[in-house]
Amino acid sequence: MVRYVPRLADGQRVRLAWPLALFRLNHIFWPLDPSTGKWGRYLDRVLAVLGCLIFVQHNDAELRYLRAEASNLNMDAFLTGMPTYLILVEAQFRSLHVLLHFEELQRFLQRFYTTIYIDPRAEPDMFRRVDGQMLVNRLVSAMYGAVISGYLISPVLSVINRRKDFLYSMVFPFDTEPLAVFVPLLLSNVWVGIVIDSMMFGETSLLCELIVHLNGRYLLLKRDLEESIQRILAERRRPQMARQLKELIIATLRQNVALNQFGEQLEAQYTVRVFIMFAFAAGLLCALSFKAYTNPMANYIYAIWFGAKTVELLSLGQLGSSLAYTTDSLGSMYYHTHWEQVLEQSSNPLETLRLLRLIQLAIEMNSRPFYVTGLKYFRVSLQAGLKILQASFSYFTFLTSMQRRQMSN
Q1: What is the pLDDT at residue 89?
Q2: Where do the domains of the chain lie?
Q3: What's the pTM?
Q4: In 10 A of CB 256, how many CB atoms?
Q5: Cβ(272)–Cβ(97) under 8 Å?
Q6: By C-alpha distance, which of 101, 103, 99 is closest to 27?
Q7: What angle in degrees, to the nearest 10, is found between the helix axes of 38-71 and 75-100?
Q8: Are 108 and 216 in contact (CB under 8 A)?
Q9: Distance CA 111, CA 117 (A)
Q10: Phi/psi at 133 (5° precision)
Q11: What is the pLDDT of residues 359-408, one digit of tens each?
């Protein structure tokens, strides 16, 4: 049972960055390799169902804790368990969507790495440029690693202090004191933490990599078109100039359409999970900021988590805006093909007319920028990230005002 191994078109194995290398070990969110046999796929489905049942058990235990604290009107304790519960529910929705589209995800990733991923051997400069845009995302991954480390150290502290504490705020409907019960539950806590943490930084890293490499392909398309046009103008073969430029634009349009089709696949694959991620973001940031604000020293994990989530949203939004800017400029790319110079120098009026019609068609095909969206409800952009931060700040001010009123009473 082998997880999918990304390879380039020539069979060369892709060297994954460390966040994606860790994410590839996640048996819920990373697809199987096509060579996996029937029994391996069956075992993988069984493990996925078992993992989902563990998620459900944790959901029940954490929800019991939240209901108990809400009935006691203990807002501080209630918000202590809120971040882990929200991210757990988010992970359940996202994992369910991935498992329902496991085969499509494998084929989508295979197409990405064979046709879209920029080969560092063929385009070293563009690869360095694209890879540099992922540095912020890797910082976010490191921050998420610090967050889960803070939770995973809890069992060690429990052993030192001779207590039986779980990693998260939970209330079980049965006695958890016997070791035969406590130890499996604690191990399930650790498993859930690792799976969800790798989901938080891994899937965002994969989405960012998809966006930056697609954006890089559009930039390479523009560069190659400009270089080829300059060669046509330099050769100055007047009877054939219009035909040469027409054939060049047709070849470019074919690549353009292939990139657009991949963008549509990207949208279809991630639109639901992006919607889920952004839908939970404002509430999660609100709870994290409130806990970090009320007691920064004791709740440093919440502060790191808040920083990681904030930078994640802004960096993903910035990459989405960059892709939209690039695709929005494609229409002007075809317009600035020096067709007016070809029109002056060409001696074939019929080919010139065909060229002008083709340029008009190319501009119309690229009249709208491409955005990754959340179920068409919002666009992944820097503006969307800022709006989420604004909403979370509004919730935060509401909670702080409630806390002051509670303390005054």
Answers
A1: 95
A2: 122-408
A3: 0.93
A4: 23
A5: yes
A6: 99
A7: 160
A8: no
A9: 9
A10: -70, -15
A11: 888 898 888 899 999 999 999 999 999 999 999 888 888 888 877 776 66
